[in-house]
Structure formats: structure tokens, C-alpha cells
Design a protein that fits this description.
The structure is a single chain. The chain is mostly helical. It has nine helices and no strands. Helix 4 packs across helix 7 and helix 7 crosses helix 9.
């Protein structure tokens, strides 16, 4: 959608983004077939299908936010806010909008994945922490030995992207809990020199953190749904759930 608005050609999924999308679409298709074959009285399959389709949409929106932020960043040339024309300030504001939208979506999507994993594998994370995050789910997952291959892979993915994700987490926390992240940078610079011009944050570094975090999300989704699909075929039912004809 955003590419069309920006006059760009539609996205063609590739790499780990394509793998994540395809794994989730395959799971949603299997869930629909299961619902067609059985009555799904407790609506567990329907719930998982809705959650999976929601993750597909969320990943699409996250990728678009990163793309739009990168698109508007190209028009920001000045290194200082005071040196920007009104047009460039508008482009910078649009970059900031989509960059913020992107880093907020990273953690929102991960927490949605955590909810799916918690439900699918009966992790009972809510007993440990009422409002739990994806990272709390990962800690719970380490205790579930039957599915340690998936738990180990998700932990490996997390560790591979720990620095960029942590950078985004700090900016997300500043944005949500304190004040706008870019205002925090401005205040720090004013503290250094009251009359100095405000240098822009490192836009390329911030965009790279968002890109790396997007890759981390894609890898986590691909791993989770690839493993789930394999377990489905192996057990002839969704892992953590009984098959439709066995449920009472």
C-alpha cells in the first residue's frame, strides 16, 4: 500500500521475509483444512488461524514502515535541524513518523508471536508474569524440553540480533514512557552547549537497527511456523492441541 502511495512498484517478497510469509500462510491453510474436516467446537483452530493471519498483516505493515522511513530519509541532506528548508523538515518529519511506527511495530509483533507460542505449547507464561512479552515467553520456552529445538533456535536468533533490538528497545521506551526519542537527543545536545545548533541523530544507523530488527522478526516467525508445520505433519495435528476427532 505505502509503495503505491509513494509511486514505487509493489514489493516482491524474497529471502527470509518470503520464508516467514510462506510458513505462516501454510499454517493458516492447514488450520482452515482442519476446521473443514472437524467441527472445532472449542474454536482453538479458528483462534490460531486468526492470530496467524494477524501476524501476516503485522509483518507486512512493519516492512512497509521500514521502507517508507528509508524512502523519506533519502531526502534529508542537512546535518542540522536549523539548516533544513521547510520542505526538508517535512521529509524529516515523515521519516521520523515511519521510523517510530516501525520500532513500535517490532515489539508489538514479537509480543503477538509470544502469545501464539504461549498458547500453542501450553507455556503458561501468564502465571509467571500477567502482562508478558515475547522475551518472557522465550525464558519459559527454555523449560519445555520436548520442544527444545525450537526454543534453542529462537534464542540463537535473539542473540544474533541482540544489539540492534536493544537499541530499538531503548528508543521505544523513551518514546512511550518518557518523551519523544528525538527530543531526548535534542535535550542532551542542549545540555552540552546551550547555543549550539542541533545535530540530527544518526539516521542511517537508526535505520540499520530497524532493518536488522525486521530481519530478526522474520527469522523468528519463519522458525516458529516452520517448526510448527513440521510438528503438524508429524503428529497429524497442531502441536499442543489434540486433533479434532479426539477433542471432547
Amino acid at each position: 500500500m505505502l509503495r503505491t502511495l509513494l509511486g514505487e512498484p509493489p514489493r516482491v517478497n524474497s529471502g527470509v521475509l518470503a520464508e516467514a510469509m510462506e510458513s505462516m500462510a501454510k499454517a493458516a491453510s492447514m488450520l482452515r483444512k482442519e476446521m473443514a474436516a472437524h467441527e472445532d467446537h472449542d474454536h482453538e483452530y479458528r483462534k490460531l488461524e486468526i492470530w496467524t493471519r494477524g501476524l501476516i498483516s503485522s509483518l507486512d505493515e512493519l516492512e512497509q514502515s521500514w521502507f517508507a522511513a528509508a524512502f523519506f530519509r533519502k531526502s534529508v541532506i542537512a546535518g542540522y535541524m536549523d539548516d533544513m528548508s521547510s520542505t526538508e523538515q517535512g521529509e524529516y518529519a515523515r521519516y521520523v513518523y515511519f521510523y517510530k511506527d516501525g520500532f513500535i511495530r517490532v515489539f508489538s509483533l514479537l509480543d503477538k508471536l509470544g502469545t501464539v507460542l504461549n498458547n500453542l505449547y501450553n507455556l503458561n507464561t501468564g502465571k509467571v508474569k500477567t502482562h508478558f512479552s515475547y522475551f518472557t515467553v522465550l525464558r519459559q520456552f527454555q523449560l519445555l524440553h520436548p520442544h527444545h529445538p525450537l526454543a534453542d533456535e529462537l534464542e540463537r536468533i535473539r542473540n544474533s540480533y541482540r544489539e540492534p533490538v536493544e537499541n530499538l528497545r531503548k528508543r521505544r521506551n523513551a518514546e512511550i514512557h518518557y518523551m519523544n526519542a528525538e527530543m531526548t537527543d535534542d535535550l542532551w545536545q542542549r545540555h552540552q552547549g546551550l547555543h549550539d545548533k542541533i545535530r540530527l541523530e544518526d539516521l542511517d544507523s537508526h535505520l540499520e537497527d530497524l532493518k536488522q530488527s525486521l530481519e530478526m522478526v522474520c527469522q523468528a516467525l519463519a522458525a516458529a511456523y516452520r517448526y510448527g508445520n513440521e510438528q503438524w505433519h508429524k503428529n497429524k495435528a497442531a502441536p499442543g492441541l489434540k486433533s479434532g476427532h479426539e477433542r471432547t
